[in-house]
């Protein structure tokens, strides 16, 4: 009799456990960034931003459609390589993720976006700035930072009107991001009545720039703009000093990192570098981002490098849209996401008809004593 009773109790326990787990909704959020290679420090920064959001959502006990949601992060490494990026995207689609935050680079984000679009999976990029990304007609693509038209154009105008550049040289790394932001910078210079004296290119793995810098030195530039990432910009700054090129050095968000002084081996002069980050934090958001940065350092024992707060907000606005839609089904929460008006730590997130952030801001920075210093926020 006792044995029979034990069997009944065990069976009841199994049924009860099954009923409990049935009420739990697993929500898979994909994240892709380069966590290997030259800019792995930026890829890990983005991934940590996603982990912060996922852990907070689970700690809060978010419910979607009456079920307690358990958020899972599926993190993939694309090595900043387009082929690896599309392979990572397909892997996430096959894993049936409910949404994707990423990729970091425009060169991986753009080809991956078609794979997500074909699968109907919402994708929010926290850092890809090439305009093409949101101009493909896909309903699934969003970004939470300003694009290169705004970023490059603003820097081009600043070079002429504020830095009084008379002979401006342009270099890019031939990636979708680097070439794109350099093109927009050049347009901005011309629109402001300025003059470019040379355009050279390298690649995103290069370490020796002697040939192109020597060519540009003959044209006596007072400003050199580089479209690319900090891992290339650092050595380029070192070699500019070795060659006696004393020009101002400008770039977009790819070089606008706390790592740049280290990567240049301390050869940067104070105020030599002027760069822009595709985002701007003002007012209440400033305190929110400072608190985020403190919590981030405590959790991961590293400082925020660049876009972690925007990754965090991207995950949060995606989760908020699921809650409001009462579903984590991409087809059901996508229309809610498109109409989002979410107060994030970086500011209000609302998208236009293309999926671009409305009223996107830029923050201009320089470096003094090896530290980044804000110059201005421009909208």
From TrEMBL:
Lineage: Bacteria, Pseudomonadati, Pseudomonadota, Betaproteobacteria, Burkholderiales
Family matches, as SUPFAM superfamilies: Periplasmic binding protein-like I
Alphabetical GO biological process terms: amino acid transport
InterPro entries documented for this protein: Leu-bd, Leu_Ile_Val-bd, Peripla_BP_I
Family assignment from sequence similarity: Belongs to the leucine-binding protein family.
Signal peptide: 1-22
Species the sequence originates in: Aquincola agrisoli
UniProt xrefs under PANTHER family: AMINO ACID BINDING PROTEIN, LEU/ILE/VAL-BINDING ABC TRANSPORTER SUBUNIT
Full protein name: Branched-chain amino acid ABC transporter substrate-binding protein
Domain called Leucine-binding protein: residue spans: 27-369
Keywords annotated in UniProt: Amino-acid transport, Signal, Transport
């Amino acid at each position: 009799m006792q044995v029979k009773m034990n069997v009944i109790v065990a069976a009841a326990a199994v049924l009860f456990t099954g009923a409990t787990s049935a009420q739990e909704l697993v929500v898979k959020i994909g994240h892709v960034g380069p966590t290997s290679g030259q800019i792995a420090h930026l890829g890990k920064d983005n991934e940590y931003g996603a982990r912060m959001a996922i852990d907070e959502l689970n700690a809060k006990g978010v419910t979607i459609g009456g079920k307690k949601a358990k958020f899972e992060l599926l993190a993939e490494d694309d090595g900043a390589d387009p082929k690896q990026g599309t392979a990572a995207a397909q892997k996430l689609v096959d894993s049936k993720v409910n949404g994707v935050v990423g990729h970091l680079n425009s060169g991986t984000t753009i080809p991956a976006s078609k794979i997500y679009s074909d699968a109907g999976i919402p994708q929010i990029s926290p850092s890809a700035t090439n305009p093409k990304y949101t101009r493909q007609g896909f309903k699934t693509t969003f970004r939470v930072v300003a694009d290169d038209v705004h970023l490059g154009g603003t820097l081009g105008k600043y070079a002429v009107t504020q830095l009084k550049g008379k002979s401006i040289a342009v270099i890019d790394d031939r990636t979708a991001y680097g070439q794109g932001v350099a093109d927009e910078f050049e347009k901005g210079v011309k629109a402001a009545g300025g003059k470019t004296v040379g355009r050279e290119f390298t690649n995103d793995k290069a370490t020796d720039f002697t040939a192109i810098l020597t060519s540009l030195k003959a044209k006596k530039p007072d400003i050199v703009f580089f479209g690319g990432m900090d891992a290339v910009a650092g050595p380029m700054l070192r070699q500019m000093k070795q060659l006696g090129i004393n020009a101002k050095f400008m770039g977009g968000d790819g070089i606008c990192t706390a790592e740049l002084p280290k990567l240049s081996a301390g050869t940067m002069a104070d105020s030599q570098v002027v760069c822009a980050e595709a985002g701007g934090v003002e007012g209440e958001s400033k305190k929110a981002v400072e608190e985020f940065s403190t919590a981030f350092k405590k959790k991961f024992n590293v400082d925020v490098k660049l876009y972690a707060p925007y990754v965090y907000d991207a995950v949060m606005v995606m989760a908020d849209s699921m809650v409001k839609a009462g579903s984590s089904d991409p087809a059901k929460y996508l229309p809610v996401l498109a109409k989002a008006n979410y107060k994030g730590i970086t500011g209000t997130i609302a998208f236009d008809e293309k999926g671009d952030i409305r009223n996107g801001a830029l923050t201009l920075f320089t470096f003094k004593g090896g530290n980044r210093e804000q110059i201005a926020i421009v909208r």
